[in-house]
Every structure is written in C-alpha cells, then in structure tokens.
C-alpha cells in the first residue's frame, strides 16, 4: 500500500504545481506581454482615477447620459462577478413586465420620441455585462441628451459617429458604440 501512495502523492504534488501554479503564471505572463491592456482589465481612467472598463458595461440612468443595455446579472445589475442572462423565456410574464418597464422608462425620459425603441435598449445581453449599444440605440437617445444638455443635436450625433466601432472583422455583427467611452466624451463636451 505504501509503495502505491508514494508515486501517487508525488504525481499529485507535481501535477498540482504544474497545473495550479506554473501553467496559470505562464498564461498570465504571456497575456500581459501580448495583450497588456486586456490582461489588466481594459480599465478606463479619467483624471488619474479608474472610472470603469471598456469590456464591462455600467448602468446609466441620468437623462444627461446615454443609457446602456439592460443587465440581468444578480444580485445587482452590471455585477462583473456574476455574468449571466435572465434565462427568462419569451412567454414568461416577468420578461414581458421587465421589457414594458424599460420601454416606459425610455418614454418617460423622452416623451416626444415616437421612434421605435431599439431592441438592445430593452433586452439584456446573454452575459448581462455588454458595454456596447448599437449605433441605432445611441441615435435613439441623441435628441433627449441634446435637449437636456442644451447641446445641438448635430454635436451629439457627431460624438456618436466619432465613437462608433465597425463590425467585427468587417462583417460580423453590427456597428456599435461603447457607452462608457461615449458618456465620458459627452461629459468632456462643453
């Protein structure tokens, strides 16, 4: 029995060191060399202070800002430690109520806007942490922001155009805008 325990325990210790220590340190080191910003969390700083990440969405409810895509993470929205969707099916009344509440909030913030509400402003993403909205969702909010901030609509639309990102690899998905980056640019506009 002891002759079996020694090689087994040696193998356990060796594999634990390789897979639990050496491999994670190696992959983290390579990531820091090849993708330094992403490995550090893609943090966005303003005046020397971290205000968020370009990879993780944040909630904005102030009418002066662009609103993000809704988050379904729990126990609180935009919880980076709990990436998940709501898992509510299309016939679930809770999903219908949540969507209705989001549409009502958008209409209350901009009662004169009669355009169709873009889907990404009322449906959460699969991860619940999507930092982007479609260009259409940003344009939907442009009039409200211009009115509340007393800015020309053309200036707000220009900011959207300046921060629009193209499709992935030139053909996957649709053009999008990082909400945090757009709101920071909006706040810097005088």
Describe the structure.
This protein folds into two domains: 1-40; 42-188, no CATH class. Helix content is 47%, strand content 9%. It is built from six helices and five strands; from the N terminus they run ααββαβααββα. It has helices at residues 2-34, 36-39, 93-109, 135-149, 153-163, 179-188, and strands at residues 43-46, 49-53, 132-134, 164-165, 176-178. The protein has a three-stranded antiparallel β-sheet. α4 packs antiparallel against α5 (153-163). The mean pLDDT is 91.
Please describe the topology of this protein:
Blueprint: H1 2-34, H2 36-39, E1 43-46, E2 49-53, H3 93-109, E3 132-134, H4 135-149, H5 153-163, E4 164-165, E5 176-178, H6 179-188
Antiparallel strand pairs: 1-2, 3-5, 4-5
Helix pairs in contact: 4-5, 5-6
What count of helical segments does DSSP give? 6
User: In terms of per-residue confidence, which ranges show pLDDT below 50 for 5 or more consecutive residues?
Assistant: none
The string of secondary-structure elements, in order, is HHEEHEHHEEH
Q: Describe the strand arrangement of the main beta sheet, using strand numbers.
A: 3-5-4
First and last CA, distance: 78 Å
Give the helix proportion (percent range): 40-55%
Q: What is the gyration radius calculated from CA atoms?
A: 22 Å
| Quaternary structure state of the chains depicted | single chain
Question: What's the β-strand tally?
Answer: 5
Q: The biggest beta sheet, please?
A: 3 strands, antiparallel
What is the general shape?
A: elongated
Could you tell me the strand content as a percent range? 5-15%
Number of domains: 2
What would you call the structural class?
mainly alpha
User: What value does the average pLDDT take?
Assistant: 91
